[in-house]
Amino acid sequence: MFSNQDVVRGTLQAYVDKDRETIEQLIAEDFHFSSPLDNRIDRDTYFRLCWPNSRNMEDFEIVRMATDGDAVFVTYIGTVSGRRFRNTEAHTLRDGKIVEVEVYFGWNVPHDVAEGEHADPKTEPATT
User: Fold this and answer.
1) Residue 21 DSSP SS3
2) Residue 98 forms beta bridges with which residues?
3) For residue 91, what are the domain limits?
4) What is the DSSP code (8-state) at residue 126?
């Protein structure tokens, strides 16, 4: 039996490995996905819109992972086509499968704003 954290790690690794068969086994039939761009899209829509991103996914470096009951929270640095970014996700699991994911977008790595500085979101980010 896999832990909930193992299931979340498995979904991230499936993106890196481009292994749709594995991720389909880890995601429940009644799965929903939310992000700043997606409002509770269903499993079929997720695979149609999000899964194609796996073709450019190179790596996930887990920064931290925590469990609270059936929820797993993970912050990671992902690498897509050489570009690094940082996100946090909240996964809800039931019976060893992911039923809900909420993604909170982070920032680019390295950060677009100089340390100790603030960028007005209505203007271009400051660069170092």
Assistant:
1) helix
2) 27, 93
3) 4-109
4) P
User: Domain tally for the chain?
Assistant: 1
Q: Is 112 helix (H, G, I), strand (E, B) or coil?
A: coil
Query: What are the phi and psi torsion angles at 5 (to 5°)?
Result: -65, -40
Helix, strand, coil tally for the chain in percent (to 5): 25, 50, 25
The reply to whether 124 falls in a domain is: no
| pLDDT tens, position by position, 53-99 | 999 999 999 999 999 999 999 999 999 999 999 999 999 999 999 99
* DSSP string over 24-46: HHHEEEEEEEEETTEEEEEHHHH
Quote the pLDDT of residue 125: 53
Q: Is 45 among the domain residues? A: yes
pLDDT band at 118 (very low <50, low <70, confident <90, very high): confident
